User: Which sequence fits this backbone?
């Protein structure tokens, strides 16, 4: 087995698989109210194609973690069967999804039975009015029900991902952390990144990691976690002596590119070796032309070898990716 090695010595073992670019929320920091021009379904990988490429990644390239993303992965009708087939490939692979949790109350049990290990749920507020302001939908109760269903189904530890937006929910960090601690959910705050479809991101308006820490310190005592961070994107802190923890993913102000172990596969079968990459490598065309697993693996290795040393957000020449986050996968 030859791993997914890049020219800077990093090895990718964590695969993020986007199953769709569609989403049933319209978060202001992700897409416009009217949505986007969705990917034609013929361009999207079929369920069997998704499973085959994951199989190549696991068997030929040493991938040990698979996370399903979107868009919103729960809108992919074949999700449960895809999870079941991937579990059959290798019982030791860790499988998770990043989801907005709409509909998770109906699917958590089936996903757990199929072999999913855990969920990451995107939730920026526990106030109904703020939730509507951010997502343009009145679905907070459904998200809360989805979180509870995931916990009941054994899809833990249940993690919550939150983005703070200046003037909207940036004053709610301690409230959200207290809510998660009370329920045993592991909260991760994420700095807003320049991946919105409407290109409205502004570095000066972004709520930084330092501001997040200062806000949390008004209610909680945070101490650095003893466990090594490794390639994990979040800096972990123990809350009030533990056992609860909170993480901050400071992709912009405290980049962790040097320890990155991730690779991404888009819903239309393109390899992205970095979230902010300006180029992609096409596996779908080769797959549909009859390429062998060995050839697909070789193409994937070539795609990873060219990975840049860092995302370059602070570089004056930085250019946003052509695709927004909803079409890349988190």
Assistant:
């Amino acid at each position: 087995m030859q791993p997914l090695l890049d020219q800077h010595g990093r090895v990718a073992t964590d695969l993020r698989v986007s199953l769709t670019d569609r989403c049933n929320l319209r978060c202001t920091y992700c897409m416009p109210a009217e949505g986007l021009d969705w990917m034609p379904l013929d361009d999207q990988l079929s369920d069997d194609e998704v499973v085959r490429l994951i199989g190549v990644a696991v068997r030929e390239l040493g991938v040990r973690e698979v996370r399903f993303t979107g868009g919103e992965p729960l809108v992919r009708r074949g999700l449960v069967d895809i999870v079941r087939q991937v579990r059959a490939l290798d019982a030791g692979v860790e499988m998770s999804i990043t989801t907005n949790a709409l509909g998770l109350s109906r699917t958590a049990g089936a996903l757990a039975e199929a072999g999913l290990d855990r969920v990451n749920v995107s939730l920026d507020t526990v106030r109904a009015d703020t939730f509507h302001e951010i997502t343009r939908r009145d679905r907070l109760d459904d998200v809360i029900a989805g979180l509870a269903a995931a916990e009941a189904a054994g899809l833990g530890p249940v993690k919550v991902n939150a983005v703070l937006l200046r003037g909207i929910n940036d004053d709610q960090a301690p409230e959200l952390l207290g809510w998660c601690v009370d329920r045993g959910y592991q909260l991760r705050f994420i700095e807003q990144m320049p991946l919105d479809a409407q290109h409205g991101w502004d570095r000066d308006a972004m709520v930084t990691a330092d501001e997040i820490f200062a806000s949390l310190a008004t209610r909680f005592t945070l101490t650095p976690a003893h466990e090594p961070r490794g390639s994990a994107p979040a800096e972990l802190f123990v809350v009030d002596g533990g056992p609860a923890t909170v993480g901050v993913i400071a992709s912009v102000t405290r980049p962790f590119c040097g320890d990155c172990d991730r690779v991404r596969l888009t819903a239309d079968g393109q390899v992205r070796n970095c979230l902010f990459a300006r180029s992609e490598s096409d596996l779908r065309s080769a797959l549909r032309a009859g390429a062998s697993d060995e050839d697909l693996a070789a193409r994937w290795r070539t795609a990873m070898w060219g990975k840049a040393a860092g995302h370059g957000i602070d570089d004056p020449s930085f250019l946003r990716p052509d695709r927004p986050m909803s079409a890349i996968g988190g």
User: Anything to note?
Assistant: The chain has one domain: 4-158+226-241+256-328. The radius of gyration is 19 Å. The CA atoms of residues 80 and 111 lie 6 Å apart.
